[in-house]
Amino acid sequence: MKKNSFFFRFFTFFLFISSSLPLNAQDLHGKALSEFIFSRIGNNSEKQFLVSSGANDFPYNVITHIHSSKEFNKKIIFAFKAEDFESHEVFFVELSKALKKTKKHCNIDMIWTIGDYEHWDDQTYTSGIATYISKIKETNGLCAVNIKFIEDRAKIIPGSGGDVSPSWLLKLASDSFYKSKLPYNIKGGVISSLYRINALVEDASTGLFIQERIPSIGIELNNQDFEKSEEKWQKEIQALCSLAENYNPEQSEYWDRHTNQLSIGPRTFWLDEKFTVISFSIIIFLSLFIICEFSFAFKRQKINFVEGFKSLWYFIPLCAIVTFLCFLAGQFVSMAIVRNFRINPFSAISIKLFVAFFLYSSASLIFIYFEKNISDRVYSFLQLISALLNIFIFSTIDISLFYLFAIEYILVNISRYSKKLIYLELSFLMMLVPFVPYGYQIVLYAKPQAIIAFLSVTPKFNVFFALGFLPFILMWMRILARINEKNSKSHSKKRWIVQNVLALFCVSMVFAITLVFFSMSVPHRYRTGNVKQHHANEIIDEENLINISFNDSVFFGETTRSLQIDLGRECINCSVILSGNKRLPVLYSQWDYKSDINSLTNYFQLPVYPSRKMRFNYISSNETDTTVKVRCRFQNEADKIYVKEYLIPMNKGKR
What is the tens place of the pLDDT at every residue in 412-439? Predict the structure, then answer.
């Protein structure tokens, strides 16, 4: 009996200890995850439901309000992913306590949103952050910081959704990281405007805020810091608290989209629009003065120079047209190789550049053969003109590109009076230096889709590429002209062909080897020609996991239809799509839904991990037949995604 009594006490103690341990939120999804977060956050928190129909079996956002000691209607929002809560629960609790103690100028919202790690291609998906933004009525004085965790150095994302974050917010975040001695990088590097052309990997949540004219940035924190020691993630807390403390909503009206950043060590320096415009005006004035005065200042060379320039007045537009045609030919060859072989996008781009370079070099040799009397000085003057034109053209597209082409122009000016061949070759290499930081950022953070799009750009973009490469093309012409001028004593046609073909072959080989090494050093995500789509391992599940039923009733001449979906088990995502053959099938519903008038389709909006029992009541159109498509994604023990899809034809509503 005593043995049984001892066993009973031990078993009771074991149950007590087990029940006091925290639940593993990483194994929780949907509503269970929302409830877990809400139970841990405590007082002064609220639930924000993602479904507005009154059903409470769906997941919801959790929001904690931290009010300022003074009454301000302004707010800074710290948005987190709900899926990160369990593994960083202590961090969130400590951050909440620290934010309450900061001397802030506004209120603070800490929000954990559901489903924002999953981004589906269809329009039926409702994210937690989109729901939160849709509830915001007044955007003035708001600011959003979207935070997620990665296995890498901390980063600041200065744009998304085809737009750039305001410079004051980016500078505020950067200074907060610097003061907290937290190492970080800025995606986009020296130029944030790459986000305006959707060239870089972006943060979807940041893009949603920016689309609603709410200043926003993305922040990625190093996940490994939280696994090492408390001292490490205290720097993250300090940085975020500093950001909240120094944010002043009264000074946040200006939105500078054309900022350049210069990182020197741990510190970042900023070049805003005003400084860039002033610099643009100064360099243009000095450039025109130099071209007009010094190019024709030496009387002894003036006559030959003017005559040579008059004979080549057409050369810049002709050179641009030939370069454009070479780019088109290179694009045709690279696309043909991509269609037949599995090569990464950067290799395809390298092929495009190599083909364009080889074709143009061949055309240049033909031109030089028939125009042997053109001096190197005339080519250098044309190169200077083309570099100056690029400053005008590309600064008009985006003023933040000014520094790139201004540095190139200065390097062209320095090399203008170079006589020795070795100096011209070094100048050609130096002209590549300003492009290195831009290329480095593109290689690190470019979207695979953007790189692939570069291969099949429209003729309009190839025109800009041709103009951008024009100074390099003319420098190459100077080198070829100098080679032939140096060997002008030999009038043998055979010797001329041999020396120029040999020069072209050597340079082409160097160029090809450089491109090969470049292609081999690109990130792993570009190593395949086919970009891997999200959830590409979906397969059709043969199990009977979905039961669908519907019934109609007539109410005041309108048909009310009830569609019920019962799931055999929890699913990741469910799409309910209604298509009409003559008009939109849904006239009204309590559920949030979107309409596409072009395809005559309605989409019911559902969050991830929806309820296993769903009922959709809506007024159906009496003028069209409807096809209902229900598509659900399930996940098995092997983490594979199984898709179950039903198509249900429905007749016109009853009259």
Answer: 888 877 778 888 888 888 888 888 888 7
The phi, psi pair for 480, rounded to 5°, reads -65, -40
Q: Report the pLDDT value the prediction gives residue 222, as an integer from 0 to 100.
A: 85
Q: State the pTM of this model.
A: 0.78
What's residue 255's pLDDT? Answer: 75
CA 295 – CA 385 distance, rounded (Å) = 11
- Is 80 exceeded by the pLDDT of residue 617? yes
Q: Is the C-alpha dihedral spanning 530, 532, 535, 539 positive or negative?
A: positive
Q: Rounded to whole angstroms, what are the CA distances from 374 to 331, 468, 469, 478? A: 32, 24, 22, 10
**From the centroid of its chain, how far is CA 247?**
25
H helix runs in 155-259, sequence order = 167-179, 204-211, 225-228, 230-246
Q: What is the pLDDT of residue 373?
A: 63
Q: How many Å separate Cα 53 from the centre of its chain?
A: 34
Residue 223 makes CB contacts below 8 A (sequence gap 6+) with 149, 150, 151
Per-residue pLDDT tens for 178-203?
888 888 888 877 777 778 877 788 88
The answer to whether residues 454 and 335 touch, using CB atoms and an 8 Å cutoff, is: no
**DSSP-derived 3-state class of residue 524:** helix
**pLDDT at residue 11, as a whole number:** 39
Q: Work out the angle between the directed axes of helices 402-414 and 273-293 (0-180°, nearest 10).
A: 30
Q: How far apart are CA 491 and CA 272, in angstroms?
A: 56
Query: Going by DSSP bridges, is the β-strand pair 75-81/107-113 parallel, antiparallel, or unpaired?
Result: parallel
> How far is it, in rounded angstroms, from Cα 34 to Cα 81?
11
Mean pLDDT score, 24-40: 76
Banded pLDDT at 555 (limits 50, 70, 90): low
Integer Cα distance of 91 and 85 in angstroms: 9
Alpha-carbon gap, residue 147 to 117, rounded angstroms: 12
- Could you tell me the sign of the dihedral formed by the alpha carbons of 231, 236, 239, 242, in that order? negative
Q: Maximum Cα–Cα distance for the chain, whole Å?
A: 121
* Token digits of residue 532: 């891997």
Backbone angles phi, psi at 398, to 5 degrees: -155, 120
* Host H or E run for residue 489: none
Sequence-distant (≥ 6) Cβ neighbours of residue 256 within 8 angstroms: 166, 167, 168, 272, 273
Please enumerate in sequence order all residues whose Cβ is within 8 A of that of 628, keeping only pairs 6 or more positions apart, or say none: 548, 550, 563, 576, 577, 578, 646, 647, 648, 650
If residue 63 lies in a helix (H) or strand (E), which one and from where to where? strand 60-66
In DSSP notation, 536-570 reads TT-EE--S--EEEEEEEEEETTEEEEEEEEEESS-
Backbone angles phi, psi at 433, to 5 degrees: -60, -45
Residue 317 has pLDDT above 70, yes or no: yes
* CA–CA distance, 350 with 327 (Å, rounded to integer): 12
Predicted pLDDT at 195? 83
Of 310, 149, 293, 281, nearest to 223 (Cα)? 149
* Structure tokens given for 168: 């004051």
**Bigger pLDDT: 238 or 340?**
238
Q: Is 270 exposed, middle or buried (0-12, 13-18, 19+ CB in 10 A)?
A: middle
Q: For residue 638, what are its two tokens? A: 């092997």
Lowest mean pLDDT: which of 66-80, 425-439, 446-460, 614-628?
446-460
